[in-house]
Amino acid sequence: MNIFATAGAATGLVIGIIIAVIIFKFTNTNHRIKTEYDERQQVLRGRGYMYSFYTMVVYECVMLVLSIGRITLPAEDYVLHYLGIILGCGVLGVYSVWNDVYWGLNNNRRRYVIIIIVLAVINLLPVIRSFRAGEFLKDGKLSYGFVNLSCLIFLAIFPLTYLIKKMVGKETESED
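Given the sequence above, the corresponding structure tokens read:
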């Protein structure tokens, strides 16, 4: 990766953080950046953060062992680092959905759903471009397109978890 690509990625990250702050202000009903939770939600989210943290630690330990053993995976380094982050966030998200702590007291659910759909479309476009241009794999390694694909998978996991939770809940109710 050359210096221009690195500068572009860093600039994109900073712009993404700024946009995220604006989105949080827009999606919360009281226009605050911070989402508010009740006591039960705070306790469960804390447990979710703990599971997420340990998931990332185990992932990084595995990556460290592979690195020490000079075992290379068919992915660029930045893809592997991103996967660690997305894995930890996925654990937190699935845990939160499963334990009903995903909506804060001041969230506008409709706005969040719209933003998730927009994010999915934004991430779908580079995936399509990467496949069409044959750049999904560069020099036999997963690259930028895979980052967007993993983000799409990440975004799809939450509604799937919610649907599974609903189905399990209906089966439990029918057994009673």
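The mean pLDDT is 87. Try to locate this feature in the token string yourself.
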